[in-house]
Amino acid sequence: MSKYSVILPTYNERENLPIITYLIFEMAKKNNLDFEIIIIEDNSPDGTLQVAQELKKVYGDKLIIHFREKKLGLGSAYMDGIKLCHGNFIVIMDADLSHHPKYLVDFIQKQKTTNCDIVTGSRYINKGGVMNWGFDRKLTSRGANFLASTMLGVKCSDLTGSFRLYKREVLEKVIKDVVSRGYAFQMEIIIRARQYGYTVEEVPIVFVERIFGESKLGASEFQIYLKGLWKLLWTF
Ligand SMILES: Nc1nc2c(ncn2[C@@H]2O[C@H](COP(=O)(O)OP(=O)(O)O[C@H]3O[C@H](CO)[C@@H](O)[C@H](O)[C@@H]3O)[C@@H](O)[C@H]2O)c(=O)[nH]1
């Protein structure tokens, strides 16, 4: 039977963590799937670690907490998470409920029917979308995707999205070569995967802007993204 490991990076997700954890395990139970969750917690000032420890009492071995002393960014959170996964499939998603666990059923179905290496959730295909984003955020996301896909010539409708299911060995192989950090990390994974000849399928998702907490995607993250994109242009 397949086993699925979900990596949840957390920074100030005290309110969201119990809900997302519950939704993932409920979805798994309902569909008779074997799931574990790996939380990569970067010493959030809001007490996310204490919430995670309470959840551990409920879910036991199915929930792993990896604590880091300081905020080290998304890319390194995924890297650390992978080392702790037991599954033959790895899911990467946000912990803030913008990525709804209900879509995991579609991801798994798509992977099974196509035997693809990566399933990526796309906001920019038919039936996909975003909810509760202001004009600025829409423009930034569309702009970042447009820049990346035209400049790098990669066919994928949502290169900057981060809700994905990977065959474990594929992610392990690809991630070794990834040089980008922060938000460009996800993009580089798809580009490298395509280079290796791995297959990528897309599934529509509706990304819902978080209700609790704040996005960490500020001007500085966007600058890091642009620098990352520039670097990738010279790499490929
Ligand atoms: N451990 C850890 N977690 C982090 C860090 N920075 C962010 N996170 C966690 O990573 C997830 C996404 O962070 P947000 O800051 O909420 O992301 P966003 O602004 O909504 O950005 C979304 O869109 C981007 C571009 O479309 C995506 O690249 C990104 O992954 C995310 O889906 C959340 O679970 C958040 O707690 C960090 O430095 N360390």
From TrEMBL:
Listed cofactors: Mg(2+); Mn(2+); Ca(2+)
One of the GO BP terms on file: alcohol metabolic process
Pathway connected to this protein: Protein modification; protein glycosylation
GO cellular component assignments: endoplasmic reticulum membrane
Domain Glycosyltransferase 2-like span(s) in chain numbering: 5-174
Molecular function, one GO term: metal ion binding
Protein family according to the UniProt entry: Belongs to the glycosyltransferase 2 family.
Subunit structure: Component of the dolichol-phosphate mannose (DPM) synthase complex.
Protein name as annotated: Dolichol-phosphate mannosyltransferase subunit 1
Organism: Paramecium octaurelia
